[in-house]
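This week, work through this protein record:
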Amino acid sequence: MTMAGRTDNEKGSITLLGEKNTEYGFDYDPGVLETFPNKHPDRDYFVKFNCPEFTSLCPITGQPDFATIYISYVPNINMVESKSLKLYLFSFRNHGDFHEDCVNIILNDLIKLMDPKYIEVWGKFLPRGGLSIDPYCNYGKPGTKWEAVAWDRLTRHDMYPEKIDNR
């Protein structure tokens, strides 16, 4: 597989991108996550992913839960490859965990994978039984300015929530 403009060293551990016979796992699998090197580690910038088709299962009832998952991060040395992230998020399809656990698991797996400067994960789940749950978690690399940013964003998170009329 060739990737335009990237040397073999710059490709990192990417094996899924360009693969035509992609297999979608139905069980939680952080092993599908892949990285590639950040070509701009000296610059702080945000990368944001929106996954409007996230599904998991209620660990008690087994009923499906649907959400939009927002992931924003400031990369350090490595970045997550988007196709592998898609497959990873898809792997929650048959995973039974509470909403709050799902977003924290995603956060922890991405921290372990990339060691980002900063990362946040926000799940906006559709209501079941008339109640929606929107858990948010974040992380700033200890000992850096991003540690303080994480605390500030957490304490100010969702102070001006949007009007919810579509779910």
Summary: The chain has a mean pLDDT of 88. The radius of gyration is 17 Å.
